[in-house]
Each structure stands twice: as structure tokens, then as C-alpha cells.
Amino acid sequence: MIRVQEVLMDTSAYLKAVVEQTSMFADWVDGRDAAASVPTCPKWTLADLVNHVGGTQRMVAMLVGERMTEPSRAFAGYVPGPTDPGQWRAWLSDGAAEAKRAFASVADDTPVWDPSGGAAGVPFWSRRLFGEACVHRADAAAALGMRYELAPELAVAATEDWLDTMTSRGYWENKPGFADAMRGSGQTLHFHATDAPGEWVARREADMIVLERAHAEADVVVRGPAAELLLVLSRRRSPNAASALELQGDRALFDHWIEHMDWVTDG
Length: 267
Known about the structure:
By secondary structure, the chain is α+β, with helices and mostly antiparallel strands. The protein contains 10 helices and 7 strands. Strands 4-3-2-6-7 form a 5-stranded mixed sheet.
């Protein structure tokens, strides 16, 4: 196994990207049909998607800006967006700017609650908002028939967020159905971005999924452009529709992985 150097964005870079990704998202959805369906989140309308993106950014801004070590008041402060789609662009832009200001007011080691089971709340949430913005812009693209593009380096960072969050101790402990489905005996999956540095090996153990940044042989290897890898791993694109990805090894193991990566796609 060859260890791969992990390339991370810092908190300010994540928030800069959150503002940029949200701006593109806001331009796409502004004035559109609130009742439009979102194929990648089958239980959601476009209004639900907008509410989730903007509401989550405001909730995290409160959590971080007020340095909360317990999340209930932030959860209670979650509010949906305007019912008028013509007001969505301004509302979404304001929420992203509010989040950026909140993160600028704290340091990375400021104590803030996070659900991962770790103790790095500020870096965790900056990366999470970034990952959310990238993936949910893909949802908007699917709903509106837009072409989705994401720079390879950003797609690698968003893939890192997705994989790290889904394999976190906190997610495993709080999603017993997921844990039961993903328990294993050492089965390995290798995900490899080919257009920017980014490789991960996930190993299914009885009590957790071990995620390593490495190049190694595995039971199944999935490799291809980072944006395509992100869309498939986050269930925004079917593996069968991802012609740029190359899969070698145990296809059933990969299909099982994708089947249970259903964090938000059912709304």
C-alpha cells in the first residue's frame, strides 16, 4: 500500500468555495418552478432543495458564530426560504455570506459541536458546507437540465468530504441500519481520481469502515475523472451512466456500497 499525501483546503478556502458554488446554484434556481421535482432526491421539490441549502447554511452559521457546543438551539433556528422563487437568489447569497462571516469570526480550534465523533467542529463544518454546496448544485442541475461541471481539485475535496463523513464514527453510531448493512470482514474498495490527486481505500470491518488515503490493490477499483467519481459516489449519477469511470473487480461489492450511500438522496 502506498500512502497518498492528503491535499486539504483550509477553512477560508472552503468558505470561499461555498460562496462561489452557492452563487451558481442561486443563479440556476432563481425564479424557477418551486414544485419541480428533483430526480436525484426523489422526495424533494426544487423548493425543498433550496430550503435545505440555504437553511443549513444559516443553521451552521449560528452554530459556529455563536460557538455552540450543543446543537439544539441551532436546529430549532432552521427556517425555510421565501415562498417566492424570485427571492431565492438573494436569500441564498445572503445565507452563504452569513456563513462566511461566521467562520471568519472563529479559529479552527474554537470548540463547536459536530456530529462526526471527532473534536474539530470548525474545520468539519467548513468542509461540510462546501461538500453540501457541490453535491446539491448537482441536484439542481438534474432538476433543471443544466450541465454540471466542477474543477477536479474541488471535486476531489468534495469526494473527501463525502467519504470521510459517511465513514465517520458518528455516522456509524447514529445510523444503525447503515452500520448493519456495511459491516464486513475486510472487503476493500479503492476510489481513484485520475485528473487530480485523490485516492481512497475503504475497508469494511465488523465495527467500522476504515478510510485511508492510499493507493493499493483492492477487491474493487473505481477510477476516473474526479467530478464523475463524486457524482457516482454521492448517488447523483448511476454507475451505468458514468461512461468515463473504469471499474475493475467485484462489481457486486461496489453496487452494495452505492446502494447504502443513501444519506440525503431520498430527502
